[in-house]
Design a protein that fits this description.
Elements (H helix, E strand, L loop, with lengths): L4 E9 L7 E6 L2 E6 L11 E5 L2 E6 L1 H24 L1
Antiparallel strand pairs: 1-2, 1-4, 2-3, 4-5
Length: 84
């Protein structure tokens, strides 16, 4: 199974379309991500990231929805682990 995780663009660097990098905040964890597939992404935008590449720009409501689903998955996994 593949998973793309949303994050908020903090900053971007590089003028070359192939080498443009973004600093992305994943709920407090900051990672550098390649922005080649989302040249329109700017600071403050939310992007979906898969294996080090931002693959889509999404709106804040969609990002919040995904964060909530991930939180529910984490809670369910924790409850199942506690039951065994």
């Amino acid at each position: 199974m593949c998973l793309a995780v949303p994050g908020r663009v903090i900053s971007t660097a590089g003028d070359d379309a192939l080498g443009r990098i973004g600093r992305i905040d994943f709920g407090g964890v900051i990672k550098e991500v390649n922005l080649i597939y989302v040249p329109e992404a700017e600071a403050g935008d939310y992007v979906l990231v898969h294996v080090g590449f931002a693959i889509a720009v999404i709106d804040e409501q969609e990002a919040a929805r995904v964060f909530e689903l991930l939180r529910q998955i984490d809670e369910t996994a924790g409850a199942q682990g506690a039951a065994t």
